Amino acid sequence: MQPQDVAPRPAPPSASSADPVVDVEQAEAALVEHYPRLARLAYLVLPPGLGRSRRVLTAHALTQRALPRNRTTTPVIPAQSAGREVDPGYALIRLRVVRTALEAGRPLRRRALPRRSQLPPLLPHVRGLKLFPRSGGADELALDQRLSALSGPARAAYVLRGLEGLSDDGVRHLLRAAGAEDVDGALREAGALPDEPALLGSPEFDPCSLQARPTDLMRRRQHARAALVAGAALVVCGALLGLPGDGWGPDGAAAPAYAQNPSAQAALDPARLTKAAPAAWETSARTDFSVWPARGGLTGDRELLRRALAVWARPGGSVGVSATPGTATGGPAGPPQLLYAGDVDNARVVILHDGLRLVRYAEPKDGTAGAALDLARTDGADRAAATAVVLGRADGNVRYLTAPWVTKAAGRDLGRPDGGARELPLTDGVTAPLASPVQQESGACTSWNVLELTDGPDTRVVTDLGELVPARLTAGRPGAAKDAAGVEALRSWAPYACSLGAVRGQGVRSVNAWEFAEQPLPDSTGSGAWVCTRAETWRGDGARVLAQFRTPGGTQGAVAAKAESVPACGERDPHVLAGVLWKSSGGHWYLLAAGSRGIGSIEASGGISGSADGNLLTAEAEQGARAELTGTLEDGRTVGGLR
Fold first, then answer.
1. Whole-angstrom Cα distance, residue 366 to residue 349?
2. Per-residue DSSP letter, 439
3. How far is it, in rounded angstroms, from Cα 640 to Cα 157?
């Protein structure tokens, strides 16, 4: 249960024993939301002696590498406990950015190995161009010169005070956590400069708003000639290695073969790929991926298909491999089915199906370097779930391959249900590009694009969650939910569209939204809506449940409670109970709790005491108080509140 203004969860106490633990997902959300600010912080702390172009690339590299690999504790900065910083995820990422930026400014030592942050970044990298922020005026230039004269910790102290608005105690605490030396001296050194927070926020110091200029053209020409000679030698060697025998040439980016098992070899023979008849879906008892016909302009390209099969079985070290949770990554047990082979934007794409998984192989049109392999579990798919597959994402857009029974496709903004749908032309089952919510710019969520697919009299609504198969959206009580099509269903989804970002990359099969209660608010301010969204996965377990609360006139719902791998709000157990702290317009705090139909009474204990008959509870509370909720069903069973 999370307090509401609808208010965010307050930060934990500043004692070291109560330092908050930050999940990787929470840290990633903070990094994505505040990326421009974190990159600016890294750019300002880095030593100006690196040069503007290298500072830009290093700032982006350090910011992106600040994401932890697992759950991590983060110290509470004094300014946080005063209410100015309540997000431990942002505090952790900011600390890691400052720490590595300080390390990057330290001199290299003879007998010590350099840290990664002290070396030029390998990524991001732009060939043939120098990138640097837009030039400012005389004031910005003077500030940059003054900052260059400071030590690294002093520069960090000045930036944290001016850009982040931290107090001296907060700066001292953060710099010590980052491993800086002589923190008090750094604060005194930074205090000698006049405070100019407005200049710190100018485009002069923004590594996300850049200008580009070419590098040394003569040197590039010389390097190009040398690369041409080396490439010719590589082609000759590759041709020799690609001759019949044990060479790697025909398999592209695949690793060397490690077995000559006849069954395994048959599964990798493009001549043995299976293909469904174009009209098989019209008469088959099954309507899933197994009856999709092979489409695309490269279904006869044996070399492309051979590379796709070989990389699936033996992805080389240069291949980017991704798989949804619970998906096996091994090669096919027998000849798979071909669903698509063709050109998609700047890539050649192959879609394969082995009965349990969908596999997407993509390679650039100019070679196999940078080939990618994506796998997704799709066993148990029915007609509603097998409506579309992601063909490719480029320039913030996504293209889909639709099922043969789909007759019409359109895109719409789920957050604006009255905005109408934009028709997407279909070419051999491939949609025109649609802006993907997965690749939208960082910052506040203002829209969420979905794909509407017409299947005879039915309309399906699916959304891209960063995986190979889009997730189906439904609305209604569990067990009686229907596709989120039509004005009523779209309006019920609109305030909660942005919450779909919380289930990206989780192997989600479908997401259902269900308004389980409507609760009158104290002080006669109207009624609040309680909605439960449940994301089901292809693997069966790991379902994610969010209880969301929306006040009258609110454009978006706020997450009041969440749980994972629980039956609540699902077909097996449609009951759900959740609560939230809410502040009225008169300044009073209340505990609002609501349960689904069938809950006969609710009791609150712990920091708040109260009880009520029925499925609604309103009790006076104090800000920051926490309560344990227990609901009693009409048959006597009890249910606990989501957390």
1. 13
2. G
3. 47
